[in-house]
Amino acid sequence: MQRSERFIRLTKWLVDRPNVPLSLSELSSRLNTAKSSLSEDMARIRAVLEAEGEGTVTSLHGMAGGVKYQAGVSRARREAFCADMVRRLSDPSRILPGGFLYMSDLLGDPDVLDTVGQLFASRFENVGVNVVVTVETKGITLAAATARYLHVPLAIVRREQRVTEGAALGIHYISGSERRIQTMSLSKRAMPASARAVIVDDFMRAGATAKAVENLLSEFSAEVAGTAVFTATAEPARKLVSDYTALFELGAIAEGQPVDVRVDRAWFEPDVHPASAAVEPPNAVDHSKNV
Amino acid sequence: MQRSERFIRLTKWLVDRPNVPLSLSELSSRLNTAKSSLSEDMARIRAVLEAEGEGTVTSLHGMAGGVKYQAGVSRARREAFCADMVRRLSDPSRILPGGFLYMSDLLGDPDVLDTVGQLFASRFENVGVNVVVTVETKGITLAAATARYLHVPLAIVRREQRVTEGAALGIHYISGSERRIQTMSLSKRAMPASARAVIVDDFMRAGATAKAVENLLSEFSAEVAGTAVFTATAEPARKLVSDYTALFELGAIAEGQPVDVRVDRAWFEPDVHPASAAVEPPNAVDHSKNV
């Protein structure tokens, strides 16, 4: 097989399946190529991805020896993404009565989901997470994207116990905003046996929901590796959970006023896969001009 | 830039963003490569993907001239996926009291989601869909995966109107199984102006929910290009919606009995991107052995 063909196949197989370990022996037999050539190819792919700042190929030392692709977002792409999100989130037309911010368009935008999934996964991919947990409904798309890039299952906490979830563990908690008793439950089968979870959600105010999920997970004897949210309000500054990370911090939300949106700078350092001589990925063609 | 490096970059850029049009002019300047060489590279990538039966690269004729990647699932991978799903779905331990089938593990499995997303997207990618619509909660992960591969936004119909969704259009309908009046509503902002939707859900019995979504979408003057569900019961054979496709058909669900699960053969013909001299992607390494 020609080397160009190997590069195309290998790159596709890797990028198609983030965090999935692939055996070098199996790749070698599928491509009818010596393991030594394959290792050279992999080194080349890794170098190109790292130069672009867009992920890497990790070697796995084990019985078989293998590799896996870990996605990454280059610094330039993070900057552009964050600037775009700040612009869109701060738009006063998003403000709904009661001081809520309309975000469902962003939470249903495939580019936003993919980028956030890659960012959240980069943060948690090396801490042994084996499940992503979210609470229905709005956080599900972000959590599913994160689970894709971590390559772990997604478990969805339900507000009401459902017959289709089978036996479930439920708890009561006091919601932050409404100060009333609420319930949440999680299917027993949805959780791995020795679970180490990352909690993903779209929004955090006081953190009552995240705290309740932590409590629910402790009933499963699950560890919580951390909580990642898309947006969190600046106030109250002290949340009910200590170990959380938010991509965007929202200032006061008042009708007619632009929302003050800040990017958590922690997302820009440390630069996990520093870019050198980066070649940025191309922009999408503007459909309106092209079709 | 070396040709091998171009192949790695181009393959990654394409595979990372299914159905996103990329301009040849921009690629040419990013890679500092003549458009003619780039066209040759693209032809090579297309040939390799098509030989593998795993998608293609489509040329876009427009002002700028461009390309986009469309994902595909090779026949062998479809066969393996369907056999695995039939095995897992027919397991009697999934049967819950009341004749329900536990599926949340599959609906949270990143490999299942990715494959179903690719299959559903292949079915609808050339019929001008500009939004994927689902109903909370269980269908959301499948719908998000489909939206990723179609590269269109996802709109989630809510069971109750929520303050965070802004102005919403709501309807009442009679649920199939419980014979009672239910509500569903969809945020006005969540839908594109001239919407052409594909409805995605995890399960269909009589089709009352899908029919209700169709009615709701007609209130938005949206067209429905079709409905795709992961599973549908064989009975009742006559559903309330006519234009739907199910990946798996479920026979009678009775406690302790294996469920009769059938694959809709329509998913195997016509073979959109027929494989010749296919090289199948490698299997993932079994973690339990390797780590």
From TrEMBL, chains A, B:
Homodimer. Keywords: DNA-binding, Transcription, Transcription regulation. It comes from Alicyclobacillus cycloheptanicus. Residues 2-69 form the Bacterial purine repressor N-terminal domain. It comes from the Bacteria. Coiled coil: none annotated. This is Purine operon repressor. The lineage of its organism: Bacteria, Bacillati, Bacillota, Bacilli, Bacillales. Belongs to the purine/pyrimidine phosphoribosyltransferase family. PurR subfamily. Residues 110-263 form the Phosphoribosyltransferase domain.
